[in-house]
Write a structure and sequence with these properties.
This protein is mostly helical and about 280 residues long. The chain contains 11 helices and 2 strands. Helix 3 crosses helix 9 (about 200-220), helix 6 (about 155-160) packs across helix 7 (about 180-190) and helix 10 crosses helix 11.
Length: about 280
């Protein structure tokens, strides 16, 4: 018994040391990722061309686009269709509602960083309503009572701080973006309040729910997405144009790049984005 007790003490201490190293490594990884995002943002800054598009890495971007297009054709599109055919609509809606509720802490953090206190308050109230009356986010009770969300991200926070959008980039798996929004994606993922606050198992469950929600989006917007990716004469140029128009309109800028290079005074987004992010 004494030998067992001694062995157990050593094992517990060893486990504690291991956990401490793991957490330190996670913190270091987060700091490194943020540093990479900032460096990437600074290195890629530049003025847009006369057509409102700053795409000096078009050759590389087109290669990434071809990869994303192939991935969508071989995996993402069929998986989304299968998900839509197999999973009942109420279940898909519940996954979407939970994913949107899980996004709210990040929205609130960015609202505060943007000094948009009214939006932060509304998102906080929305979070409370969905977690209680919405049964943990399974139902969007807040929208039902006239309390819409105020979605945002760290890319918008950088915009509010005066950071330019930088060059256009297409990211593997994520799709169209800009240098500023790519840096924002890194910060939003690495410093997500939900994954930082909950245990690893729950964080993985939250990630899985988000993936199911994205599949639901891809299925819901399949007609538009596929017309862009597979029916356009130049799917890369079309996806780039729509992304820049939509993003600039979201940020309240004066229109975006139009097909003929003129400024567009508004853009009605037919879907959320080319890859239903």
């Amino acid at each position: 018994m004494l030998s067992f007790g001694k062995w157990w003490d050593v094992t517990v201490k060893g486990l504690k040391i291991s956990l401490m190293v793991t957490r330190a490594a996670q913190r270091a990884a987060r700091h490194s990722a943020v540093a990479v995002a900032v460096a990437f943002l600074a290195a890629c800054a530049g003025a847009p061309g006369p057509d409102g598009i700053n795409d000096p890495y078009e050759t590389t971007n087109r290669s990434v686009h071809d990869f994303n297009r192939g991935l969508d054709r071989a995996l993402v599109g069929p998986a989304a269709k299968g998900y839509g055919n197999i999973v009942p609509t109420p279940v898909r809606r519940a996954f979407g509602n939970v994913a949107a509720t899980l996004d709210l802490p990040g929205d609130i953090a960015n609202n505060l960083l943007q000094l948009r206190l009214a939006d932060a308050a509304q998102n906080t109230l929305r979070l409370g309503v969905n977690l209680t009356a919405g049964l943990g986010g399974l139902m969007d009770a807040s929208t039902a009572i006239g309390l819409p969300g105020k979605p945002t991200d760290f890319g918008e926070t950088l915009h509010v701080w005066g950071v330019g959008e930088g060059v256009y980039v297409e990211l593997p798996f994520a799709g169209p973006s800009t240098a500023r929004d790519a840096a924002g994606i890194v910060v939003d993922v690495v410093l997500n309040p939900v994954t930082l606050a909950v245990p690893r198992r729950e964080a993985l469950a939250a990630t899985a729910i988000s993936v199911f929600s994205r599949l639901g989006d891809r299925d819901r917007f399949s007609e538009t997405v596929e017309s862009i990716l597979y029916d356009s004469a130049d799917s890369y140029a079309q996806a780039r144009l729509l992304y820049l128009q939509n993003r600039r309109f979201e940020l309240g800028q004066e229109g975006g790049a139009s097909a003929d290079g003129a400024e567009d005074d508004g853009f009605i987004d037919p879907y959320e984005d080319p890859y239903a992010e």
